[in-house]
Amino acid sequence: MGKLDNKVAIVTGGSRGIGTAIALALADEGADVAISYVAAEDRAKAVVSDLEAKGVRAAAFRADQTDVTQATGLIHQVVEQFGKLDILVNNVGIGGGGRIDEVDPDEAAIERQLTANYRSPAAAIREALPLLPDDGRIISISSGVGMRAGFPGMAYYTATKSALEGFSRGVARDLAGRGVTVNVIQSGFIDTDANPADGPAAAVFLPTTSMGRYGRGEEIAAGVVFLASPEASYVTGAVLRIDGGYGA
User: What's the CA gap between 246 and 148, in Å, rounded?
Assistant: First the structure.
């Protein structure tokens, strides 16, 4: 028996990296899992196969989180196919940004980042509220940069993650009476294809952590499983740092 038997979870951006690790960990505890992806359909299908091999139902849906309409539509697609929704994991995030004193900033890129990192998760949360049961779970993946920029050129990214964290704390207050918990994980530097531990950025990133290493997707996923589980029923409005001491 798993902690999440008979639960249905959505993991946005579940076709790679941290999202895949989260999806697999939820399935290990018995949850049926829907993942979203943008372009990597073959990779998404492979993740679905891995999830189904664990004995749970799984599906992948194309949904671009830089489009609020697609982000909210995903909620209804999943409920239509799976019959319900218990756990919403907002995992998609767009990093980077630019210095605030740039002469010609990429305004379109700034808007895409704001939408993917804040507007779409906020809209998805609102869309999911009438569908979640009274023991539902909402978990959003933020970044240690949401609390501490750490580097030049992170102002826009930091702003989007700080907005997501502040929104989540407010929603936690609003939904506490229903027993729906709303929490955030601040992720540190995680070894993924997009940011490998042996990549060129490691020399800059690692000295800013206390532990001096990159994290693994499974370490973020363990935090998600805890927050999604019955043991976390008294945890809401929390920002859980899994960042190797970046924020220490």
Answer: 9
Closest by alpha carbon to 149, among 231, 64, 226, 208?
208
Query: Angle of helix 68-82 relative to helix 120-128, nearest 10 degrees?
Result: 30
Q: Over the stretch 45-54, which tens digit does the pLDDT of each residue have?
A: 999 999 999 9
Answer yes or no: 157 catalytic. yes
Candidate list 118, 157, 214, 246, residue with the active-site label: 157
Distance between start and end Cα atoms, the chain: 37
Is the pTM here over 0.85, yes or no?
yes
CATH no. of 8-242: 3.40.50.720
Extended beta strands in the chain, E state: 8-11, 32-37, 58-62, 87-90, 137-143, 181-187, 239-242
Q: What is the pLDDT of residues 95-141, one digit of tens each?
A: 877 888 888 888 999 999 999 999 999 999 999 999 999 999 999 99
